[in-house]
Amino acid sequence: MLLSEEQTLIRDTARAFAQEKVAPHVRAWEAAGEIPRSLLREMGELGFMGMCVPAEWGGAEAGMVSYVLALEEIAAADGGLSTVMSVNNSPDCAALLAYGSPEQKERWLKPLARGEILGAFCLTEPQAGSDASNLKTRAERRGNGWVLNGVKQFITSGRTANMALVFAVTDPDSAKRGISCFIVPTSAPGSTTRPVSSATSRTTASASDSPGSTRPPGTDHSPRPGSLRRRINSSLWWASYASAPTQGTPVLPSVIE
Ligand SMILES: Cc1cc2nc3c(=O)[nH]c(=O)nc-3n(C[C@H](O)[C@H](O)[C@H](O)COP(=O)(O)OP(=O)(O)OC[C@H]3O[C@@H](n4cnc5c(N)ncnc54)[C@H](O)[C@@H]3O)c2cc1C
After folding, report:
1. CATH number at 119-255
2. 93 Cα: distance to centroid of ligand 1 (angstroms)
3. Where do the domains of the chain lie?
4. Is this prediction's pTM over 0.70?
């Protein structure tokens, strides 16, 4: 395949960045179990954290080929870092771009795509890997908000992310169609994480997450039950949680669409 001038430039930029700023430090980051946030911000400034996101939403608007070229170069230096980069780009930015409301894009997609914050994607559970719709995590309405209860597993950036897309069952009677996706700030009270050791991805800060039982009620959007099959694959319905309030008067959620 012949690369365009822009694709060649992006590949060469990623290669130089990976070899100069990543490769020499991987051993130290593996020992620490995570990547310095300053490096992720630098990657954001280079456009690597939202490569397929339009410029109006803070992305590089570089296209899928450039994204894959950059990802390959980062992976050649550290597979863990490329996993962190891909989760931020692919499930997180792509899902928000495809299904987020303008408010959600403004609040979450822009800083994710710029590398100002880091995203996680919480789908897998101990009993739900390949069989991704076999979720036990439940989301229940509590007042005007939602409470999520469950355990997630193998979550890339689970210990370091600022926000997470969390999948949970909102309507147990509707099987796969009763799964919704929530935008959850990781600062929300009630969640705990436990490191997961990995032989291959030591810098991903992977974690098992318990969304816990006390998510904040300050929901600013409510999810509609959605079909995992129809909508994530895809995918999604989600709710956006206001990060701050755990007490006080919750905002009545407004339904998306
Ligand atoms: C590096 C890394 C990063 C990850 N990051 C995330 C993340 O950020 N967020 C997240 O939600 N998850 C993440 N995961 C989890 C990943 O999505 C799951 O590991 C994956 O879905 C497989 O699930 P499992 O590990 O439970 O394996 P299983 O589903 O138990 O599969 C085990 C084996 O059985 C095979 N198998 C399963 N079902 C069938 C079938 N019906 N027929 C034939 N063979 C079958 C599989 O192919 C596999 O070889 C990550 C995993 C890795 C390795």
Report:
1. 2.40.110.10
2. 21
3. 5-113, 119-255
4. yes
